[in-house]
Amino acid sequence: MTNSPNLLVSPTSSRSVTETVNGSHKFVIQGYSLAKGMGIGKHIASDNFTVGGYQWAIYFYPDGKNPEDNSTYVSVFIALASEGTDVRALFELTLVDQSGKGKHKVHSHFDRSLESGPYTLKYRGSMWGYKRFFRRALLETSDFLKDDCLKINCTVGVVVSAIDCSRLHSIQVPESDIGAQFGMLLENMEGSDVTFNVAGEKFHAHKLVLAARSPTFRSKFFEGSEEDREEIVISDLEPKVFKAILHFIYRDTLTEDVDSATSSLSCMSLVSDTLTAKLLAASDKYGLERLRLMCESHLCKDISVNSVARILALADQYHASELKSICLRFAVENLAAVMRSDGFEYLKENFPALQSELLKTVAGCEEDCSSGGKSRSVWAQLSDGDTNSRRNYASWEFQFRMYVKGNELWGHVDRSSTAPTDPKELSSWEGRDAKIASWLLSSVEPHMVNNLCRFTTVKQMWDYL
């Protein structure tokens, strides 16, 4: 038997690629002067952000992290906020120059050679940063501090390694430009078959494009009485709002002036007058769900103690469910301050049903706290401030109302159940009335307990108060 010739086998190849997965976060510290004095080693934390599959946070120490420095410096660190072991990463911290001169203070691992390689964080809570990030006296007279506000930008690059075969032979596919192409169709007005008259300004468009994007337009053009009309009058929108709607329908993006209008908002009482708020209303009218979410995202960035009530009203009115949920949660977490705002009175006068929904949310969070939840209790918030006002009538009466309404117990506050005269016997008194009375007796001033205990029904307690 003769030996068969050796078979030629094509060589295989592979490549190990080590690179960084980068992500950035902008952290605004408003009220710097009020944060001073919180104590050495105590920090203000940014919201968590995700880069490379891990969560991160920025820690700002207004009084410094090192006791030996005696609050001479502010400290800034980037912390690993999720579980992880030996996470290797590059970091960059930038203190933003707010004068417009671009003279930022930058500490960066990027674009330079590191003798010992990337920084390794051993476990959750590990940090990288500077105990002596900036001398505090100099910071407070610099262009980095403006209107009692600091801005810190952070970039994290998580080091990852992988075996990559595909990159040896690859064809680059460009990003989709369908939005730009449809946008040119709108700008050139080529083939347009419908004209909109908005306060005297004319907009040319294409019925098929509008119908494909909006169920409202589809109904108007193919199921309603406006199928054959070549000009349609829009009387309930401003030209700039309708122009922004067409821009979104054709390009699937927001106009640049939406961003600038939202970011320059100075008086939150005028939030309903912003272009973003008007687009939110229009998205609800024309069934543009993605536009609605984009507007929700923009308005979410402007939620504050003074604005939350009005943004909540907008969200409820135009079915922005995610924005509404965030507003309710923010209001609960900052209830004491929100109650003192003009927006809360606005909600009480104009949207009483929505205020009741807020109270129900508060009551639900109170139960979470009482069962071991991490959120700060509402009563703890309402008790903040000077000693004389900690348990004033407005505070506990408000909480009693929202507790009862929030747990749908109002129907149980009646004359059907009697209360024991001794508060110690409340534990044996079954039913929801007992829960209400027990809460009430523990909330009022001590000298009022005896007065309440002489009543035989919860209703009598309530009427007395």
Notes on the structure:
By secondary structure, the protein is an alpha+beta fold. The chain has 19 helices and 13 strands.
The radius of gyration computed from the alpha-carbon positions, rounded to a whole number of angstroms, is 30 Å
Overall average residue pLDDT: 79
Low-confidence stretches: 263-269, 370-379, 382-432
Percentage of residues in DSSP E strands? 15-25%
Shape: extended
Largest sheet: 5 strands, antiparallel
Q: How many distinct helices?
A: 19
**Distance separating the two termini:** 111 Å
What is the helical fraction, as a range of percent?
25-40%
Give me the secondary-structure category: alpha+beta
Topology, please?
Elements: E1 16-30, H1 32-35, E2 44-45, E3 49-51, E4 54-61, E5 73-80, E6 87-95, E7 105-108, E8 119-121, E9 127-135, H2 136-139, E10 149-163, H3 178-188, E11 194-198, E12 201-205, H4 207-213, H5 215-222, E13 231-234, H6 239-251, H7 256-263, H8 275-286, H9 289-300, H10 308-317, H11 321-333, H12 335-339, H13 342-350, H14 352-370, H15 378-382, H16 393-406, H17 432-443, H18 446-453, H19 458-464
Parallel strand pairs: 11-13
Antiparallel strand pairs: 1-10, 2-4, 3-4, 4-5, 5-9, 6-7, 6-8, 6-10, 11-12
Helix pairs in contact: 3-6, 4-5, 6-8, 8-9, 9-11, 10-11, 10-13, 11-14, 14-16, 16-17
Keywords:
five-stranded antiparallel beta sheet; alpha+beta; BTB/POZ and MATH domain-containing protein 4; 19 helices; BPM_C; 465 residues; TRAF-like
